[in-house]
Amino acid sequence: MSKDDTQRIRLREVSPDDTEALWDILEPTFRRGDTYTIDPMISKQEAIAYWTSSDKSTFLARLHEKNVGTYYIRPNQSGRGNHVCNCGFITHPKARGLGVARQMLEHALKKAKATGYHAMQFNFVVSTNTRAVDIWKTYGFDIVGTLPEAFDHPALGLVDAYVMYKTL
Amino acid sequence: MSKDDTQRIRLREVSPDDTEALWDILEPTFRRGDTYTIDPMISKQEAIAYWTSSDKSTFLARLHEKNVGTYYIRPNQSGRGNHVCNCGFITHPKARGLGVARQMLEHALKKAKATGYHAMQFNFVVSTNTRAVDIWKTYGFDIVGTLPEAFDHPALGLVDAYVMYKTL
Any CB–CB contact under 8 A between A74 and chain B? Predict the structure, then answer.
């Protein structure tokens, strides 16, 4: 696979048949535990329930018949805050550097606009996850908040997390 | 009731018998809809389920045998973010100005320290809720983030919301 494959990445909404595909993508990232505030020991069942909960629309990214990533989009708040959406993105470790995160974000931004959201907010971007921070910045997200030592990084200890925001 | 009554405010953890007491406090604030991102039309059952969900410890503030306020405390994130707590506070409209919010916050801060939390985070303080913002600042909370136009205020339209944070 090469960077030229980016355009061949296809996204579709998940179905109940995608449990294994989702877990294959989620497990390495959740177990590593250095980017998401998910219990690293989370069970497969809990992880799938979380990633596909009823408030979310969840998508699967596929490339050459392989599952390379997944993301969800949901209202970040209810009631009078539901015009701002929130997303979570996970790329399969073996599919890094292929533009999967960018493709998913572009899909999410289109989806968000089509749904009528005014803005997209990431509530907790671990500051040491520079790969993600740099991509989000490229797409116009600002760091609008810094949460001091809010993440207990497995290797680095307490590090900051960012709140990132993009008006659509 | 006067300001001298502040010291007579007592807090205790809620029990299933407190449904009516909680709803009496929650309903006016949720219906008014100018401080919380809760659907203003939320049902009693949904509101109680939200305010007393299993991730939360929920308390009732009483003064002279009246229910004057309620708050919850919970981990703001799971996994490696669970050393930061989050709280929600609601004072009964008829008990305003008696120091109920301050008493609840002091109780929450003690509870948070005793539980071993490192910090307390408020994810969404509506910027026009100056009463709350001022109290939180008095107790050492900083505005660490501003979410542009993230709240659709029923009277004022789109206004900012703050992320507020206090290291314990």
Answer: no
B141 at A interface, C-beta within 8 A:
no
Domains and CATH numbers, chain B: 3-167 (3.40.630.30)
User: How high is the ipTM of this complex?
Assistant: 0.92
Give the model confidence (pLDDT) of A66-115 as tens digits. Answer: 999 999 999 999 999 999 999 999 999 999 999 999 999 999 999 999 99
Q: To 10 degrees, the CA torsion angle through A29, A34, A38, A39?
A: 100
Reported pTM? 0.94
- Kindly report the nearest CA distance between residue B137 and chain A, in angstroms: 16
Q: Which residues of B touch A37 (CB under 8 A)?
A: 77-82
Interchain proximity A150–B38, CB inside 8 Å: no
- Cα separation, A22 vs A75, in Å, equals 21
Contact B147 A153 (CB under 8 A): no
